[in-house]
Amino acid sequence: MAIRFQILFFLVVVLAISSATALISSESFNPSASKAISDLRDAIERGLGFQGKEGLKVSGFDVRDALVGQSVAYEFDVEVDKKTIPIKLLEDVNRWDFVDLPMFRTEEGEEKGLAEFGKRRESSRVSPVLSPFQLAGPMELWIQDGDDLRLSLPHDVEAGTLKKVILSDGAVVTVKGARSVSLRHPLELPLPLNRTYQKGRSMASGLMSIAEALRNTARSNEKPLLSLRIVGPTSLTSSPSTSPNDKLKLRLLAPGLVELSARSVPAVAEDVDRPVGHGATLWPLTSLNSSNSNLRGFEELLASVLGKKGEEEGSFKLVRAEVSARNYLKMGFSVEKRLLEEEVDWSGFPEWKMKPEEATSHFEVIARIEDNGKVIPERIAQVQPVVTQDTISFSAQTGNISFSQLPIVHPPPVYFTL
Fold first, then answer.
1. What is the C-alpha separation between 145 and 366, in angstroms, rounded?
2. Which residue, 28, 151, 331, 360, has fewest beta-carbon neighbours within 10 Å?
């Protein structure tokens, strides 16, 4: 009787511990994560046409196997002949890691940690940012989510919370920590792409000619033509220069509004003869020049979008442009399809193998993680699974023949063998 009581007590303790562990796991796991993954699965099934089809089974989508990486997305809307053409490009992710994203955890899970997610990089919880880039005036910058923005010219300057920064002609700043850069107003850009300046003195093609025409137009107007919105920058610093006369001057126009100007402004007449061909910089991005490989790729893409119109006099409109750094999720899933006898030719299938009843295809999805926790699929590709090698027993290879029925073969003698 005592032994039975001890066994019963042991079972009760084990069940209590198991229930407590399950309760902790369910409390630590964020229910919004399962909702985001289920929405991702539904979107993929609708996009591939799997939803509602009989004989198809989609499996996978385990967040414990998900990889997270950071990349830069380029989105443009080009209007040609009153027809808007969306363009979307995505840089390759250089590194994929197992990352403990906040969307997969609750506040309690942040403190305790979840064993099923394993060891993940803590630094990857930081929001992705763009690499530092330089902007040259004349233009205006609208700052969003820049409460902690640091202004250095080159020493730190206290200007309060900045909402708008005007860059005069000749002023160049380096932007760090920005999450995205977008165009505030549509731009009317000139055509053709290949344009000659000053009666054949210099020749520019593609984006270089458009940038040069846009810069000349901005210089001739009183107000900056180009207006950009920058989200979340951490610092605006004057570009490094060897000349002390190139330091920027600050003028406070209103609370949250400042103007940055250069002490020495280049003359427009001298700048007209500046070569805009090979080696020239792309205004307003002074870090890009005509030899940049990404810039040449953009030029080829723009030429293919415009077609014959790109060689004619006229214009086209850049309705929307945004460059943003984002987190991306990569995970695998599989699709199983029930096989029917009449759908498959089994003539070349080995007799000793068992015929499969289902065919499985493996896929990989790369999805964008939004700030609100939604996961939106961007790219889906079919991947090849690990190839398994069949092993056949000796009896199956020889047709299940005994050794007594095999012919005796005498190999030629080796005279150097003792």
1. 28
2. 360
